[in-house]
Every structure is written in structure tokens, then in C-alpha cells.
Design goal:
This protein has 13 helices and 12 strands. The strands form 3 sheets. A 6-stranded parallel sheet has the order 2-1-3-4-5-11, with helices on both faces. Helix 7 links the parallel strand 3 and strand 4. Helix 1 packs across helix 2, helix 1 packs across helix 3 and helix 10 crosses helix 11.
Length: 320
């Protein structure tokens, strides 16, 4: 169904376009009965006036679609904070939609937003998806979390994040290190982070003690049940969510001699455990970069921007 314009509202109400604009912006100079009539037409036609009204005043308002996989994801929420902050700074509107890792939902949202004539998309990428349906939208696109050919991408140094944690633990006397990760079908959070663990233990001739789950807290809790059957002194977790689940299992079993680390610099974990060791990827700054990229209409060349890992700790193991 065709979306109504401010001109349509004016025609249906039997008034001028400028009168509709004055009503929308609550300006003076409009009779009360005319105002009531215009507002009634706006309500009956589900007209969303904000963007149209501002454009009528000569302000070009750009709107961007932000497609997240999970609204409850700590890492994605940090990135979204940077995105929304930067969009607000640039006087841009935005719509946030959650696809719950569904490509079909993503396609539906993209189709809906294209019809609403958004100016571009920032999409938290689903593993192994090529996003061909985004290529012909005529909109600028930035993908976050996966490196997909043909798109501007924001990615994170997953391999070195795990390697950095492992080297820190090894340096501080931890020689029996297990790994709890995301399923390896995910090429970044899953496979790359696990590969760093695998390469490290092979180099050090350590035993491979690993288990895999999903992105949820309870998944780390469940995997921990099998992991602690082994003789270990540390557990490296592929995400802070997994680390939270592992830590809760150890707490309930009164096990306090195993160091648990994560990735994501989760504020909840920092609050619950001031000694928590984690990795920061400067998620908020990467969100700002995503906006700077999607709003840059001069640059047509696609680029991949890598954000490096930073070890976050409180000297809990340092002997110095």
C-alpha cells in the first residue's frame, strides 16, 4: 500500500500543505476546528509526520535501519550505543529491528525499510550469510562482525583476542587451560577464537580440553559441567556471556581455584567480579565508525575496518 505523504494529508483534510505543517509543528495561526480536522485525518491514515515535517521546513532528515541479531547482546548493545550516539550527533533518525539470527526476518525488514526509503543500513551480520539481497537496494550498507565480500565491514581481531588471554595466563603460571566457546559453525566468534586456542595448546604441547555452546549464559553453565571433570587451572571463554555461566557453575560447586576469563568487557561481570579478566574491542567506537562509513556518500570504495583486542584486568595474577 502506498505510503501517504504530507500532500495526501492536506488533500484529504481539504487544507493546504503549509497548514498541515503548522498543525504538525503545533504552530499558531490555525483555527481550532481546522486543527482538529487535520489531526483526525493524520490519525485515521496512520501518518508519521516527523520526517516529512522537518523536510518541509527544508531540513533533510536521513534515516538508517539498524538490524541487530539480539537486543539482549552485551557486545551488540555497546556497538549500538556508539551508532545511536553518532547518528544523533549527525541529526539522523534510526530504526532498530531484531532478527534473532533469522535471514528471512532480515530480508523482510530490509524490504520494509526500503519501502520506507531509509538512507542506508547497519547490519550485525549472521554467520555465513552473503547478503546478496542487500546488494541491489541502492542503499549504502555496513556489516558488523563478519567480513563479507563487496561490503563495508566492521570486524574484530578474534584470533588475537584469545591468544592474548592465553599468553597472559601462561605467563602467570596457568598450564592446564580449558576452552569454552561458541559453536565452530560461526566463523568468527566460533572458529577463529577456537583456532587461537588450538594453535596455542599445540605449540605448548598442552591437552585440548574444550567444549562448545551458544551465546547464552546457561550454555556456559552446561558446558562447564563436563569441563571441570578434567584437571584444569583456568578456563578461557569465547564470550563474557559464556564466562558468566561458567563462573556461576563454579560458584554453586564451591570451586574457587580455577581462573575464568572472557571476551567482551561486560559491565555486569565487572560489577559482579572486580577481578574478571576480559577483552575489550572498543565496541562503542566501532559503532561510531559504522555511522561515519554509512553516511559517507563521497567514498564508493568498500573497506574492512579491524578493531584490535585490549586485555582488561586488575592484576589479579601478576606476581610483580
Amino acid at each position: 500500500m502506498k505510503k501517504n505523504t504530507i500532500l495526501d494529508i492536506a488533500r484529504l483534510a481539504g487544507v493546504s500543505k503549509s497548514t498541515v505543517s503548522r498543525v504538525i509543528n503545533n504552530e499558531s495561526g490555525v483555527k481550532e476546528e481546522t486543527k482538529i480536522k487535520v489531526l483526525k485525518v493524520i490519525k485515521e491514515n496512520n501518518f508519521s509526520p516527523s520526517k516529512s515535517a522537518r523536510e518541509l521546513r527544508g531540513i533533510k532528515v536521513k534515516t538508517y535501519g539498524i538490524l541487530v541479531t539480539r537486543l539482549d547482546s552485551n557486545s551488540e548493545s555497546q556497538v549500538v550505543r556508539g551508532i545511536t550516539k553518532e547518528l544523533y550527533k549527525n541529526n539522523c533518525d534510526y530504526l532498530i529491528l531484531e532478527n534473532q539470527f533469522s535471514v528471512e526476518k532480515t530480508k523482510h525488514f530490509v524490504d520494509t525499510l526500503v519501502k520506507r526509503d531509509v538512507d542506508g543500513f547497519i547490519v550485525f551480520a549472521i554467520a555465513n550469510e552473503k547478503y546478496d539481497f542487500l546488494r541491489n537496494t541502492g542503499k549504502k550498507v555496513v556489516l558488523i562482525g563478519q567480513d563479507v565480500e563487496g561490503f563495508n565491514c566492521i570486524v574484530y581481531d578474534d584470533y588475537n583476542a584469545v591468544k592474548m588471554v592465553l599468553e597472559y595466563l601462561w605467563k602467570n603460571g596457568k598450564k592446564k587451560i580449558a576452552y569454552v566457546g561458541v559453536n565452530r559453525s560461526d566463523p568468527t566468534t566460533g572458529e577463529k577464537r577456537y583456532k587461537a586456542y588450538e594453535d596455542f595448546i599445540n605449540l605448548k604441547k598442552m591437552k585440548n580440553i574444550s567444549g562448545f555452546g551458544n551465546f547464552e549464559y546457561y550454555s556456559g553453565y552446561e558446558v562447564a559441567k563436563d569441563i571441570i571433570k578434567h584437571d584444569i587451572d583456568a578456563i578461557v571463554c569465547g564470550t563474557d556471556n559464556l564466562a558468566l555461566g561458567v563462573k556461576e557453575y563454579l560458584r554453586r560447586k564451591n570451586i574457587d581455584n580455577i581462573v575464568v576469563t572472557g571476551i567482551g568487557n561486560n559491565s555486569l561481570l565487572r560489577f559482579l567480579d572486580s577481578n574478571h579478566i576480559s577483552i575489550s574491542f572498543s565496541y562503542e567506537k566501532s559503532g561510531e565508525k559504522a555511522v561515519q562509513t554509512v553516511t559517507d556518500m563521497k567514498t564508493t570504495k568498500v573497506n574492512t575496518y579491524m578493531y584490535n583486542a585490549e586485555l582488561i584486568l586488575n592484576n589479579v595474577l601478576d606476581k610483580s
